[in-house]
Amino acid sequence: MTSREEILHALSSVIDPELRRSIVELDMVRSVEIGENGVIDVTVSLTTPGCPVRGHFQKAVAEAVSGLEGVSHCNVYFDVLSEAQRASLQRKLGRASLPEGALAQVANILCIGSGKGGVGKSTLTANLAAALMVEGKRVGVLDADVWGYSIPRMYGLGSTRPPVSPQRKIIPLGAHGVSVMSIGFFVEEDAAVVWRGPMLHKALTQFLQDVDWGELDYLLIDLPPGTGDVSMTLAQLLPQAQFVIVTTPQPTAQKVARRAAQMAHKVSLEIAGVIENMSSFETPSGERFALFGEGGGRELADELDVPLLGSVPLTLPLREHADEGLPLVLDDPDDPAARAIHHVARGIIALTPLQLPALPLVEAPAGAGAPAGAPAPSPERKPAGMSLPMA
Ligand SMILES: Nc1ncnc2c1ncn2[C@@H]1O[C@H](COP(=O)(O)OP(=O)(O)OP(=O)(O)O)[C@@H](O)[C@H]1O
Ligand SMILES: [Mg+2]
Q: Which of 11, 36, 353, 357 is exposed most, by the fewest CB atoms within 10 A?
């Protein structure tokens, strides 16, 4: 009868077409069971539940094993890599990673992104952080929009420089109960920031490792528009982060937002959900205006198979408060936009139920699934969303 070793040897011919390595080398073979009458059960761990190459594995694994002596049938089962295993896989693939301990006390990292500019990412990030704080969470905001930083203004923070601790860590500024860090604190007001490539990478890495966030339930990262350098770098540095996609309701915006989703997929980040912004608003007399069309958020969420976390209407106070530096959700929680953002905050809390610290960033011992010392993957910790199945 065929041995486990022979089966693993045969499985090493099964290549993950995206990662271009064998599933054995990638530690994706979760179990091999040799049953009676030559029936073999193989379980393969996928990187994401919606893994587009599942069908390929199904066929390739069955073929590889069925050819072995004494094998009558091969059942192929699938499960999904835990976050710890996925992070370890990403490190194995030589992706960038942060030094051990950086962000270890941050439980959830959410990158707020969009395909294009001006859809309200920063306004939503600032208000969502404040709304999470109202729900009793410890929240930080990192303004990663190195070219158009706007978070300091939205929190009423001028050009104050954050203090540095005796351990030479930068301490975020506190504003309205939220810890805030922005590239805007380190450059002259309105000075053009012309960072590109390696310099940009270095600045972001430094931000992530040199800021003393302390214990946080949520770190919200306000991304620059598009799917460029910053988003890619962050995604690689933070394999445990989840993506929240902001879109406006019209179909063209949705198409652009889909590109952000494809980028998230490319770097294997989970998409936690979609927020539709600038949805229709109602006048006090009940008249509705859908300035930017309707339904785009729902359509995008359905297409990506992730939740629509909320539809935030256009309201004048949301814009005015952003300009004045006071998150609207704190000043007038009954404003329709504020109500919608509070709803999004509660949805996010429901999707990220565990208060566990994020993965310790340590190297996995060769052959081990999860990094040493990592919390055991919890069965409750289901991925909050799915990556985009590529066409
Ligand atoms: N729901 C809304 N109602 C009213 N005004 C809004 C709403 N959402 C955003 N705005 C306003 O729209 C403008 C653009 O928003 P914001 O700066 O948040 O977008 P952004 O996606 O971060 O832009 P960029 O891509 O340039 O970073 C701001 O003036 C903001 O106050
Ligand atoms: Mg912005």
A: 36
